[in-house]
TrEMBL record:
Keywords: Membrane, Transmembrane, Transmembrane helix. It comes from the Bacteria. This is MFS transporter. The chain crosses the membrane at residues 29-49, 73-96, 103-121, 133-151, 158-178, 198-219, 231-251, 257-276, 288-310, 316-336, 348-368, 374-394, 401-425, 445-466. Residues 1-26 are annotated as: Disordered. Residues 8-23 have a biased composition (Pro residues).
Length: 483
């Protein structure tokens, strides 16, 4: 990245111009199709993340004739989705820039839907792992393509919808999955845990076909993929693959301390990548996109997911409502950034991090310790903070920088998962609970330790956002219009 320091920095490729003129009616159909795609594809991708196989492990073990070792293997197999997604996102980013983004999107969603539809046919541990890995790989290929399609529209509003929908999907994925596969199973077929909600993937494929049909009114294509950009996008593949391998290896074989050490080292490495790219004309952005993506990955799903499990009380709808409110706050917060002036965006990113810190403090005071209705108190600022942070950081950001940040987002998510699960497992091993109440107390104690770490990390990531944004060549002025 230092090779760019010897020559005057180029403006970031394909950054957003001012909002398009409403009189440009021919592009409205394509813009609406893209919005529909975002609102369906991102939830479908996020819903591939939750692993609820533990809730049906007894039924799965009985039907497959598994011993204790076989059940542990099934848990490892069902957890392959996130590692597969982590590896696939950088590859999908290159494919979406090198090939038509719509075709990359269709290929990814077709693989995701195929994995979802094949879930009921899995009759072995190997097939269960294949199904889950296919879902993760398909989701990882499709996700960058949705971002590229949004950037092709050159619309602040669509970019804000993308950011808010991603944040909302990460907050609501686990409670939706737990509604389909509740704790204890309650008669649920174990195959349901492999694909808790099939219909969002089908809806996403339909929306992708509609987006493909609207290509005749699409905006002019983005600038061609350059060698430097391709090198940038493949940069996260090696650390992502290493993290995915270690996550699979460590999940059920390493001690909680070993898992926590892997997560801490990975987080430092990811922050280093974000800092290294922050001042680069291609990888960086004027408002710290890469560290903002780290924030979304580390403090979205890993904070909301365990909270959904701790607040589940057997009811069908009650635990879902606070998370739905948090998702709505994420989308609203993102939309509120659309009309912000350029000079206010860096402050908006820092404000978003402040809301996340406030959410963590509220969670420490209320979440998982009182009535489930109080869960909405931390989820509202958490959702709003994530939405504001993502949408503001993406403004005036080139497509390469946005894809680079996205390639760091899900390794951060996997890192957060390793952290919270290792802390909870450590508490369980220390307490050795004998009753359900003691187990819940130990899990809550581990989660609260994670919240403390999350609050500190949010503050540090806010500082990283401010530093990388200040170092970027375009930090002092809005990015020029593209074409």
């Amino acid at each position: 990245m230092s090779s760019h320091a010897e020559s005057p920095p180029e403006p970031p490729p394909a950054a957003f111009p001012e909002p398009p003129d409403p009189s440009r009616a021919p592009g409205r159909a394509a813009a609406l199709a893209t919005a529909l795609l975002v609102l369906t594809a991102l939830p479908a991708i996020a819903l591939a993340l939750p692993d609820t196989s533990l809730n049906v492990l007894a039924d799965a073990g009985a039907r497959l004739g598994l011993d204790d070792a076989g059940r542990r293997a099934l848990l490892r197999a069902s957890g392959l989705t996130l590692p597969a997604l982590v590896v696939a996102v950088p590859a999908g980013a290159v494919a979406a820039r090198r090939l038509p983004a719509r075709l990359t999107l269709l290929a990814g969603l077709a693989l995701l839907l195929g994995g979802v539809l094949a879930a009921p046919l899995a009759d072995s541990v190997a097939l269960a792992g294949t199904v889950r890995a296919a879902q993760g790989a398909g989701a990882g290929l499709a996700l960058p393509a949705t971002l590229v399609l949004v950037w092709e529209r050159r619309s602040r509003l669509l970019a804000a919808v993308w950011a808010g929908t991603l944040a909302a999907a990460l907050l609501t994925a686990m409670p939706l999955a737990l509604r389909a596969v509740p704790a204890g199973g309650h008669g649920t077929d174990w195959h349901t845990a492999l694909a808790p909600l099939p219909w969002p993937a089908a809806a996403a494929v339909a929306a992708a076909l509609a987006c493909l049909a609207a290509r005749t009114t699409a905006a002019p294509p983005l600038s061609a993929l350059r060698h430097a950009e391709r090198g940038l996008l493949v940069l996260p593949i090696v650390p992502a693959a290493g993290l995915a391998f270690l996550a699979v290896l460590a999940a059920h074989r390493w001690s909680p301390g070993g898992q926590l050490a892997v997560a801490a080292i990975t987080l430092v490495a990811l922050a280093g990548l974000a800092l290294a790219g922050g001042g680069d004309a291609i990888a960086g952005s004027p408002h710290g996109c890469a560290p903002a993506m780290l924030t979304a990955g580390l403090l979205g799903y890993p904070v909301a997911g365990p909270l959904a499990g701790l607040t589940q009380d057997g009811a069908a709808w009650a635990p879902l409502l606070p998370f739905a409110a948090g998702g709505a706050a994420a989308l609203l917060g993102a939309l509120l950034t659309v009309r912000l002036p350029h000079t206010a965006l860096r402050g908006a990113v820092l404000t978003g991090h402040g809301l996340i810190v406030a959410a963590v403090l509220l969670a420490l005071a209320t979440a998982a310790t009182g009535p489930s209705a109080l869960t909405v108190l931390p989820l509202l600022p958490l959702g709003a903070g994530l939405g504001v942070t993502l949408a503001a950081a993406l403004r005036d950001t080139g497509v390469a920088a946005a894809l680079f940040g996205l390639a760091l987002c899900f390794p951060a998510l996997l890192t957060g998962q390793l952290m919270v699960l290792s802390l909870q497992m450590g508490r369980l091993q220390r307490v050795r609970p004998e009753t359900v109440a003691e187990q819940a107390h130990a899990l809550t104690a581990g989660y609260r330790m994670w919240l403390v770490a999350a609050g500190v990390t949010a503050g540090l990531l806010a500082a990283v956002c401010a530093r990388t944004g200040a170092r970027h060549p375009a930090a002092a002025a809005p990015a020029p219009q593209d074409g």
